[in-house]
Recover the amino acids of this structure.
């Protein structure tokens, strides 16, 4: 799998729609200080579902929307679309291309789309779980990220290894199933109490 295309519109300093195409192998983004290089990696993290404004170097989520300059008015929404080549079958589904879009309006309303269909953030998390590509995946390493890995606790390191070997998805599903079992158990207890009261 590789990153094929990134389209930005109204995201941080990218007021006008911009499309960046990448080919297989190494790509480098170069430019003067403040030209928007880190905004591009922020956009990748954001479209993959990043919810932490701190990781996106802002104070509130609205800060990702173009806030205007002397010559340009602020915009009302930010949109990022990421296209991944999946011909190698990296994720478990059979799609040749995975296209993910995230849009956020100043009103706070937000949308996610996967291959042109509206979806939930959870669907995006599940698709990338165990691939290393999700918002917490190890394929996106920001400044200071390496030091964080070196200084990680044994539990944190175990989390990284578990993501790499692909068991996080099963662990999450197990936790969800355990929660459902617990809720069902509680409901059964309540039913038993009610039955005892009636009898
Ligand atoms: P450096 O090489 O110094 O790390 P960089 O190329 O990585 O710089 P970025 O940090 O990506 O640059 O971009 C910073 C620029 O983005 C600043 O000029 C900042 O004003 C602008 N910017 C950030 N958020 C917004 C926003 N919401 N609206 C408009 N401009 C924004």
């Amino acid at each position: 799998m590789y990153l094929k295309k990134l389209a930005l519109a109204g995201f941080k300093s990218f007021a006008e729609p911009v499309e960046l195409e990448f080919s297989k192998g190494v790509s480098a983004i170069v430019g003067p200080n403040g030209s928007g290089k880190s905004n591009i990696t922020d956009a990748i993290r954001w479209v993959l579902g990043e919810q932490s404004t701190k990781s996106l170097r802002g104070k509130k989520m609205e800060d990702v929307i173009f806030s205007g300059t002397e010559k340009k008015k602020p915009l009302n929404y930010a949109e990022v679309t990421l296209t991944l080549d999946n011909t190698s079958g990296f994720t478990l589904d059979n799609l040749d291309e995975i296209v993910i879009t995230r849009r956020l309006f100043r009103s706070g309303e937000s949308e996610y789309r996967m291959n042109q269909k509206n979806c939930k953030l959870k669907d995006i998390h599940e698709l990338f779980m165990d691939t290393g590509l999700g918002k917490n995946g190890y394929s996106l390493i920001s400044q200071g990220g390496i030091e964080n890995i070196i200084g990680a606790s044994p539990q944190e390191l175990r989390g990284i290894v578990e993501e790499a070997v692909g068991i996080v998805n099963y662990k999450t599903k197990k936790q969800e199933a355990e929660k459902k079992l617990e809720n069902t158990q509680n409901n059964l207890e309540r039913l038993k109490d009610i039955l005892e009261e009636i009898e």
